[in-house]
Specification:
The protein is mostly beta strands. It has one domain. It has one helix and ten strands; from the N terminus they run E-E-H-E-E-E-E-E-E-E-E. The strands form three sheets. A five-stranded antiparallel beta sheet has the order 8-7-6-9-10, with no helix packed on it. Strands 4-3-5 form a three-stranded antiparallel beta sheet. The relative contact order is 0.14.
Length: 168
């Protein structure tokens, strides 16, 4: 008989059921080769100014007028005081709080560079921002490492790809 499902890779019969298995009738498995692609529009809403400033090579956080906490990533409302925050430009340097070398590589733009991520304490911010760490050279990915922002010279797919941190 001709296969009716073109993308079917295989059908695995159910194994011999274990006594008392309530899912015995659900153990047969069909495996499909599915490829999905979709696009969508997404508004960055109240935080749009943060992303637009990245295009100008500026790093913005928000400050609470009540408690003075500086949020990075920015927040439109301070979760501690429920006060509407105000924009503040931040320094383009900081220190690594913690970092991790990913088991995966970064495939954007066809590259195979290992992905290193770190929570960075940007000078003047009260919170940490998660961002890529690149070009460590002889430096170890250890807490306290002084870092600086480096800006992309090329067009990117998403505003968060416009900058990363490197050892200062």
């Amino acid at each position: 008989m001709t296969e009716l499902v073109k993308r079917k890779l295989e059908a695995r019969p159910a194994p011999e059921p274990d006594p008392g298995d309530p899912f015995a009738a659900f153990r047969e498995v069909e495996i499909l080769d599915m490829q999905m692609a979709f696009g969508f529009r997404h508004s960055l809403g109240k935080l749009s100014r943060f992303f637009l400033a990245l295009e100008e090579r500026k790093l913005l956080g928000t400050v609470c007028p009540t408690c003075g906490k500086v949020w990075l990533p920015p927040r439109p409302v301070c979760p501690d005081d429920l006060a509407v925050t105000e924009w503040r430009e931040l320094a383009q340097r900081g220190r690594l709080a913690v970092g991790s070398l990913s088991a995966y590589s970064l495939k954007t733009a066809g590259g195979d560079r290992q992905l290193m991520l770190g929570y960075v304490e940007v000078e003047g911010a009260s919170t940490l921002i998660l961002q890529q760490i690149r070009n460590l050279g002889a430096h170890a990915l250890e807490p306290g490492l002084p870092l600086k922002i480096v800006w992309s010279e090329e067009a990117v797919e998403h505003p968060m790809e416009l900058f990363w941190f490197e050892p200062a």
